[in-house]
Task: structure prediction
Amino acid sequence: MSAQRFSTPTPKFKPMNLTKNFPTRYDDLKLPTDARWLSVAAKVAKCLSDGGIVVLHGGKGAGKTFMATDIAKHGTFPQMTFPDHTRRPAIYKTAMRIFLEIRATFRRGSELSELELMDSLADASLLVIDEVQERGETLFEDQKLTAIIDARYMHRRPTLIIGNYETPGDFASSVSPSILSRMQECGGAIHCDWPSFRANKPEKP
Result:
């Protein structure tokens, strides 16, 4: 883990963290060189290392998911192992995927119960919830999202929420007061307002 990635020193040969469901498209990409992106990445990594709740919001193509993936692989979090010393995974899910998987547990013959699925999300060393703006904002979804984040908060396990919101108010109006209160206490929202990296990619010859 390089000093450029994070603001705290780490062992030179620290093994990569155990991750689950993170996009593989970022595996071979180099980190952006944009100073603002790197500065925000360091701030987010520090807050998550303290067990915080962070919201990354802004337009598409700002590298929010890439940032989350890099932090998940190389960051340090309060509880990185289970009591039996096996490693806790950092887990990536879109909000829509979470709710689809919860509903799938209601089917007869489901391999997982709803409680088992919720516990797996609550137990992750880091939980990244992406595309949160795509959810339906129903009472069912509000209750499940609040339950997951509250369980993680109670055990000081960090959560990173990502959405294509232009302002913190847009996010605030879409979630429960409980989530906002937890976030304000131990984290915050960061606006990724730099230009899209996708728009700046050079054209192929």
